[in-house]
Amino acid sequence: MAAYIHNIATVVPERSYRQDFLREQMKKYIGQRDISRHIIHRIYAKSGIKKRHTVIDDFRANGDPRVFFQQDGSLSTPSTGKRNQLYIEKAKPLWVKTARKTIEENPSVNKTDITHIITVSCTGFFAPEPGFEIIKELNLSSSTERFHLGFMGCFAAFPAMKMAQSFCAAQPDANVLIVCLELCTLHLQNSEATDHLISASVFADGAAGLIVSARQPVKRALKLEHFSTTIAEETEEDMAWTIGDTGFEMVLSSYVPDLIKSNLSDAIQPLLEAYHISLADINRWAVHPGGRAILDKVHQSCNLQPEQLAASRKVLANYGNMSSATILFVLKELLDSTEENNKTTTLALAFGPGLTIESALLTTTDPA
Question: Which residue ranges does the record assign to the Chalcone/stilbene synthase C-terminal domain (predicted)?
């Protein structure tokens, strides 16, 4: 039985900063050596990012007590416990806001129709988990089934969509609400290590929700066709998360774009074979913008035209890398496009710890 993404809603924190402003603050607070300041300037200047959203409001003149960037010029390093407490405080209302917006923007599914909730996050934890909070605040049925995917990283929206597809196949009247929410900026590290500087230059905060159902769409939708997953050999240490005493520490090797390029063809070939198509048959691409270099390598590896990655580059420029939520921002850009695209085939890609490459084929469908 076919399953469809009926709509996608996105939410970001109110506060945002321009990338060039953040570059200068990082040079001031973290760049203790000339070489570090030079590296910071270069990384930020070549990031492809114009601005990023964050729950951190350190630079407002009369705001709450600062989290990281102190007015005396020092950089605080909050404990993991303090960061997670801030996650709970900031994330709970964003979970609810995103879920409510997703349901309200759906023309055919209301809150009484929701049968399953899948929540996704790798930047904080609390229990009862976010699905419980959504049910409580939106007054959903207490029998709504809840599932949480945690600590999977930037590709986690794909397992969530696969779960939703399976639920719809097993239960034809299922209406699955997925919400991905990440507050990556809570895990800034006071470190001049290149991995940490790269992470600080790209990660941002944001959330996205979608509803997956086997119902026939009443407006343009994305049909879930096929999924594929693969793990690149001997790359586990090049992209990983670990929980330290001062937040979650991201390992993001500068080799990641090259590793993606060298493994991409093998990763997506099973998907193409299952659908009996070639790369030339792919009309549009939704690539997780983990960074400018990653998009550049995908562009080169698959010999794409600039417009085929336009949605991914736009999301990178305006939002940065919001981990699991980011690919949904890209898919929303494509879904909301005004161009004629009935039966358009989209290849979606995301990359995360492992190094794991997740891919999906989706077909754009318009109601009859």
Answer: 229-363
